[in-house]
Queue: 2 jobs
Job 1
Amino acid sequence: MLRPDINDLLTQTGPGTPMGELFRRYWQPVLHTDELPEDGCPPVRVKILSERLIAVRTPEGEYGLMDEFCAHRGVSLWFGRVEEGGIRCPYHGWKYAADGQAIDVPSELNNSEFCKNVKLRSYPLVKVGDLLWSYLGDPAKQPPLPEWEFATVPSEQTFTSKRFQECNWLQALEGGIDSSHVTWLHGGGPNGDGLEADPLFAGARGNQYNKGDLKPYFEIVERDGGLLIGARRNAEEGHYYWRVTPWVLPNFTMVPPRGDHSLHGHFWVPIDDENCWAWSFDYHPVRPLTAAERDAMKGGAGVHSKNVPGTYRPVANKDNDYLIDREKQRTGEWFSGVEGIAIQDSSLQESMGPIVDRTKERLVATDVGIIKARQKLRRAAEALRDYGTEPLGNRPAHQRIRSVAVVLPADQSFVEGSGEAFDARPGVAQTSV
Amino acid sequence: MAEPSPVSRCARAATAKEAAYRIDYPLAYARSTRVVAFDDEAARTVRAVMDEPWGQAQFYSAPGPGHELLTVAGEARPLAGELADSDSVIMVATNRVNAEAVATVGAAAQVRAIMTAGLLMADEDGLTGETFMAIRPYARILLAPADQDDLVELLRAIRA
Ligand code: FES
Ligand SMILES: [Fe+2]
């Protein structure tokens, strides 16, 4: 159970809200580079943290992210003409550079003098890896560019997709932290082989430990910038099989790996308080993804989704009851009757309503990970609001992190036992069984 | 395809407007949470949080082999009786953990299918392998390291 004021604090991310200000201390993924595919291409609407923006790529190749609406009379610049050095509003011809600065107001006699005082709010838009990232906060506090491993390995080793999720970001994040749902919803419970059926997970030795021990024990450990959530199962005599999920503030999670399959994870980015982007990535630290892997990812396997062509909305969505198949639910082939990990998660998280009323929840002791994550988010937002305390998780040292799957002696702390396994190290393979 | 249904009969009901129709009634407290400290240091933490207005939570320490729990008033009560109508046991310990008592209480919780969670308070040197070994088999979930605030937040979250 959460007090209503704390639920509001954690779920509201618009300008001026405590959690919104916290998010504005982090670089967030905004677009896939494919969405602005070439110099001078059409602009793209962006909504993030309850702000409506327009992303442009000028004919010179400069990226910009600015207020969507023209300073003159509020026309959406999505209708704008991308021209040399910027974008021009088609209504009365006001033109803006990539940084939102007005550079031409044709109706004004003293055009250049007038322009000086007209600037649309704008934010940096920077390519790191296959994504375009933005930072919506105080420029004086801008952290270094993100160094998440999925975005820094060569392009052929990484794949990122995104899908529109129709609920508050925290509901989606909490699914990423709540490891105890995996056995049920995705694994199919006692009779399922949900994970073995997915080409991006099949064949790992770890899968056998999963099947052999359906009731994992959990351990939650703090790490600079977030938490490590360890799920522990029995392995060979005197040993445990650990699957460890890192969470880095505020909205980055990774899934523990299986065998030599790629590592994967998510960013849960607020669009507004009732919608978010689920960014899903897969990468291998030391080898290119195979054509088969890439095809499976594009086809919606693993953590990815099949989207309506030309959009980022999943084919299975709330307008068609997520294409639930009651027969497969009955036989247990898909535990919830919904196909694929991504939609299994989104269907249930959306069903809770756009912003779930956490005063009505009935948490149990095994929800400690969620309780702890909420505590850290609340404290970070309050410390920033009340004391200007710089939050953790927005610097490279906290971002060079990996998920881990490992077998360790029974008396070892999974953190010490794993050594450097949690550190992203260029050229070094992941620790996985 | 079935005939068109009203919005409340399909997934589209997941709107803010429809969410407002989630029926409202008071939630019961957790059946009964037992918070047990397994060493003196842990007992200090437990005593520090017990004065909040909890629902039905009860607070103890577990000296000796653990077949009897000690209430904060210093009264010894048989373990079996105290677990009789409980649904979760929160185990609190430090490196000085009384492993024998953990095993007794943990096993008793296990046979009764009572959920267990452990909070391990670290000292400067962190937590030792023995501490983990003592509690791991018996705590479904461990927060390590944890502090007094964590205990309070956990108890609040589960409506103890
Ligand atoms: S069982 Fe967890 S939400 Fe229903
Ligand atoms: Fe999930």
Job 2
Amino acid sequence: MNPIILALVTVVLGVIACVTYFFGSNWVLDRIYPDTGPNAGRNINRANAVRPWLFMLPAIAILGLYLVYPVFNSIWLSMMDRSRENFVGLENYRWMIADDKFQESLFNNAMWLIIVPAMSTLFGLIAAGLTDRIWWGNIAKSLIFMPMAISFVGASVIWKFIYDYRGEDQTQIGLLNSIVTSLGGDPQAWITIPFWNDIFLMVILIWIQTGFAMVILSAALRGIPEETIEAAVLDGAGPLTVFFKIKIPQIAGTIAVVWTTITILVLKVFDIVFAMTNGEWGTQVLANYMYRMTFIDGHAGRGSAIALTIMVLVIPIMIWNIRNALKENA
Amino acid sequence: MASLLLQNIAKSYGTVEVLKDIDLDIEQGELIVFVGPSGCGKSTLLRMIAGLEKITGGDLYIDGERMNDTPPSKRGIAMVFQSYALYPHMTVYDNMAFALKVAKMPKAEIDQRVRNAGKILQLTDYLDRLPKALSGGQRQRVAIGRSIVRDPKVYLFDEPLSNLDAALRVDTRIEIAQLKENMPESTMIYVTHDQVEAMTLATRIVVLNNKTHTIAQFGTPLDLYQRPENTFVAQFIGSPKMNLLPGTISAAQDTTTTIDVTAGGVATVPVSAAGLPSGTEVQLGVRPEDFVVAQPGDAVIFEGQASYTEKLGEVTVVYFTPRDGEDSVIAKIPGIADVSKGTQLSLTASPDKLHLFDASGHSFFYK
Ligand SMILES: Nc1ncnc2c1ncn2[C@@H]1O[C@H](COP(=O)(O)OP(=O)(O)OP(=O)(O)O)[C@@H](O)[C@H]1O
Ligand SMILES: [Mg+2]
């Protein structure tokens, strides 16, 4: 069958199945506990107690199958050898800690972790603060937000053209190199320069995430009561004092949520490194190394050990993030 | 510590005119209250004085200095907002100290001023708390404290009590009156909806008219009550509002004018309508509380049948069946009067309690 038709049929069937499940299960529940008759009140209470579970059941089941089960399987795999048949205990972890490439990945991840959330949040905050004051602010906002709609791989392709390098004697088609050469400098192979190539890759993610930070922070800035700002103006505060002493503290919770959300995303960073350098020239990161170990080197045990490292690093930030988000809503 | 002069102040948003021809001469130490119906521009006028709203016409002088283009913080004013506008992330102490810190005042002096304001406003025990851990009344006092520490020339209050419950409102009103008494030098401008607040606090009241966008009257509370310049003020001040009985001049003497009330009844008002021919249409104003039941021999001003009564103990409020197209006439009779639906009453009033307005609503007293 034509794959497009197949896809369409699958989507339609999937939607019909979902609708049928929700209506059907709800209908059955209402038959079991009718909201009429002598026990109407008790029945309604019981039905209401059961209903959320009924509706969440598919989600819980699927999450369990695709998230929880793999975690346990990974733990198990991380203690197996290359053939996935012999139990080796903590051998993979021992290898991992001693491995140069792993240490490089860990260090790079740490750099990403510090620089990307900080810069994205900072630029997002600046953009949010400035776009509210100008008439073309909404246009600027849309432009800044647009990269959010591009996949990481798509963004990497775009930036490949910016960082492109074509040997000394060829015409440079990379944007950065054409700027450098037009200013009289020598073209550079940007993504092979140690340390700086890391930064060049981070720029891509910052470019994408600034839009996210801006949108959330701009909404938070608008939520600040106008009168507190007027009061500060009457108190003699200038624009900078108002921004740093009155506005930022009032949106501190949101800043924390934005920061940690980006942090979690950064911990999982994979696509950009994969598409741009594939971890060469000292740009390896944990997720990409895990992929390499598992699928290129074919050692699922080592790959799983690295995967679990990422998970352990994400969990505390995740908990903190959820706490903050809950506090925001309270 | 300052006088204010507003000359011809006007405000419009685009083509929408909100205020015009605002002339006010406010002396040092006064407590001026702005009242008027919702949307008449009280807040706008206050915010123009503060500098939060651009003045689109006329001149504003504080202590003789033109302030139209002076930034808010340089005008020597402090403002208390209706919503308090406390900085939610700062303690009570820091809220009060913020302006002083911005002004780079020495730490010791900041401390002394904040603690002093805290003492005046009974906030000493709460200085380390965040605003969210305070009651409405306490937040209100912090907002006032934030003004006091700056020792401004002019205090501006925008409906500061409207978020408080009735009992707390009375207490805080008295506190503000005492505050003013302790700072006889400072000038205050106060916006309110509440007539009692206006009458009790003000040295002079500004009534704003929401139809003409101008000042309806500027005078002392008793002036406004006893000698309203026009029917707008007459009906705005006092509750229930003043009755306006249509009538015609039957005789205009040198110092008195006799009126034929259209609904029947006559009244002689001690004002001169000299020069006006008899038959000129006028409106006779009588406050509900000035009506008294007529004794035999009295000149009856109004006669009618009660359609509804409210016995409040202290007074009995009587509503009369309205004539076509007119408001119900209302009378307030002291004590528990023997009046019920259908009772026929004849009312009179002492001549010096009567008000007389021409057809366009201007008082003859000011002619
Ligand atoms: N930005 C604006 N654009 C147009 N009209 C405005 C604007 N701000 C206020 N107004 C109008 O100005 C008028 C005065 O508003 P203002 O807030 O001063 O009234 P107010 O007397 O304080 O009313 P309230 O007693 O309800 O607080 C209102 O009719 C309002 O609709
Ligand atoms: Mg207002």
